Known about the structure:
A four-stranded parallel beta sheet has the order 4-3-9-10, sandwiched between helices. Helix 4 packs across helix 7, helix 11 crosses helix 13 and helix 13 packs antiparallel against helix 14. The protein is an alpha/beta fold. Residues 1-22 have low confidence and may be disordered. It has 16 helices and 15 strands. It has three domains: 23-144 and 161-174 and 222-274, HUPs (Rossmann fold), CATH 3.40.50; 278-424, Isoleucyl-tRNA Synthetase, Domain 1; 432-487, no CATH class.
Amino acid sequence: MMEKLFIYNTLSRTKEEFKAINPPFVGMYVCGPTVYSDVHLGNCRTFMSFDIIYRYLLHLGYKVRYVRNITDAGHLEGDADVGEDKISKKAKLAQLEPMEIVQKYTVGFRDIMALFNTLPPSIEPTATGHIIEQQEIAKKIIDNGLAYESNGTVYFDVEKFAKTNNYTALTNRKLEELLENTRDLEGQDDKKGRLDFALWIKAKPEHLMKWPSPWGVGFPGWHIECSAMSTKYLGEQFDIHGGGMDLQATHHTNEIAQNIAYCGKSPANYWLHTNMLTVNGQKMSKSLGNSFLPIELFTGQHPLLNKGFTPMTVRFFMMQTHYRSTLDFSNEALEASEKAYNRLMDSYKTLQSLKPSGTSTDIVSKLQKDCYEAMNDDFNTPVLIAHLFEAVRIINSANDKKMSLTQKDIDLLHRIYQHFVFDVMGLKKDEETGKAYKALEGVMNLVLSLRDKAKSNKDFTTSDEIRNNLTALNIQVKDSKEGTAWSI
């Protein structure tokens, strides 16, 4: 096990502020999904990045408690405590109970994460399961003089907090600039200050998800759920808090303020944020038509894709860019990753048949050291991958009789693959997942060709029966002038 683990502290903003920690126990909290729609690739990248961090800490011998929450209440359409709860809105449109929406998309999220071979977290708490804890924190902050109730809603007093604390420590932004850029919003008259945010929100009569509280019937604000769950399962201070970079300026800034107001302590020692995804240089968004669901990547059923890619190819692709850097999707980049992933796996097969010869060198032991140094440098997976392809070069050279390796070298190469390719990077040795999707694609092509034949023979009963049976299996068939497409 390495003597020291180095993690980049985003509060410091400089490379010189690397700090060493070596506890026997690591507490890690990651903001999980809001379960009102299918998980998108931006979420997937965040959770895959923290999966690799989790895996590496476990590999080093740390006892890790990894908490990843499920947001199933209190997340409104905007960050300004106005609008409708996203899950309630979805439930009304679908004429379902909100918890039916929660269950559907929670199960879907876990299924997708399993396809990407991510380890489940130690604890996966929900916001609705911790209403009492959120109310208790709000009450304590009121008692501490940093929150107030107004017409059934409890607000955090940002400007009062900022008089004795650095409210913008996470982003280094100036409070004056935030005040100048804050627009007047609905419900603003209830607040003392424009930056004040809700800890508890009074529910309108038509609101579906609501609970009794000391301030009347309502529901929790979005930010307070993470304070409640991280504190309950990791204590008032823990090691790592993570999430997408879009959470840094508002959600995580407010979370820090809440915790300090509640217990006098900032929750985490290290804040890690993953960067955004782009597509061919453009921001990924539904409005631009360039957003992908994971299943569309696997099947290739998207106008911007030339073909489908296996979950392991996509996972490998995401690791080729550092988690704090922007990652750009393109067919060319995915195809290059597919070739590189296959080279890495083919080399592992070659390693199985290598025979020892020659005298020992330090080249393989140095390679192992380089792999650890890459991961110790802020979990630098692109550099790690570069070192792993040095292992590929060594294996292929030995196989071509251009280099000699001892049994010790070969054993160490096996350990490098096991530790870094399979354990830390989470890539699978076999290609069963990819084979399954290729098989599914072949079956669907066959089924749709039979349906097309039935339609051309005016056998609409058989055609409709095929469509209805596929629908029952959650496979949607869409007919258009260009042909028939399918998606899960």
